[in-house]
Write a structure and sequence with these properties.
The protein is of the alpha+beta class. The protein is 46% helix and 16% strand.
Amino acid sequence: MSLKDLFAFRPKGVAVQTRRPSKNPYQSWMGHTPLLPPDAALFDAMREAVPLIDAALDKIVRLTGSFTIQCSDPELQQELDDFVTSVRVGASYSGLHQFVSSYLYSLLTYGNAVGEIIPDPGGGGIYALYNANLQDLHIREGRTPLEVELCTLQSGKLQPVAYPDLILFTPLNPPAGELRGVPILRGLPFVAGILIKIFDCIGTNFERAGNLRYAVTYRPGSDRLDKVYAKDIAENIAREWSAAMSDCASVRDFVAVGDVDIKVIGADSQMLEAQIPVRQMLEQIVAKLGIPPFMLGLHWSTTERMSAQQADILTSELESYRRLLDPVLTHICNLFLALRGYAATARPVWNDINLQDEAEAANIRLLNARAQAIEAQVAAATQGKEEFLDDFPD
């Protein structure tokens, strides 16, 4: 759809074309690929069952940082800034930053992210931004292998979206020849499954052995009366033992006559060491997500130089996510300016990624200031020497 068609597009009401209007169970899926991966529910369960995975994704989104939108026309900068901070996002939020955060969450968790631009019915630009549900969308190859086509369910059949220029789609590292991206959590279900099994066993063992249980054994003696009344004596011992253990208000002694043996159930067995296997699984998760261990509260032995190197690696990871979001931000802001009737363009400017503490950042600024002062002194001394030599004739 050309820019002229966009100006001519004035819907009578606000409509979202990426939502599923009906729930007809008989749908034509031939030639289409579901945009939501088949193991999406598994990824959601992993984030819920393993808090470290959820915390790592939250930190990636937050550490990606904030941005400003720079307009090529300075006179339009204030109007563009107002749009960035006040544009509606879904039904509950506002601001382009909120839209980008939800967009990045979907991109990391499911490998794909889809958003939609809702034009203003009155022709005033962009009314809202909408983070589409991947469950409602399918994808297929367009007219050429370089084009993709998003489809939604319309009257029981999948149809291409009516205004593709209003759709934002980003795949995460799609394999060669594939349209759909790859979630960052791919490869972790096996590791997370082992970790959950270990945690479940630890909980079960503590439930069994943590709350002490006792085995009270009565052995009848060789006396004939002990053998005849063994059942009555055992019932009496059991009754008195239960009364002694159930009285939580005070400590009670248990007195028995005869050969009575009391042992703690499970005291002779040794619980398996879980620290080493748990750390091995966590190392795999941390390596996959690219978050330094110290940022997730894992106090593993490390050096200051190693921590700095890990921070540099994370910075490169965050910059790669920024490069994926740049086209999305550029398209939204350029379309806003075009719908407002302006020929100006816009581009995102990301804030510097700073993973160091304030003291180290201040020290770096001090060193840079000293270096600039020394360079200025050297340049001034060199210039003065050249002027002094120029005063002498050849």
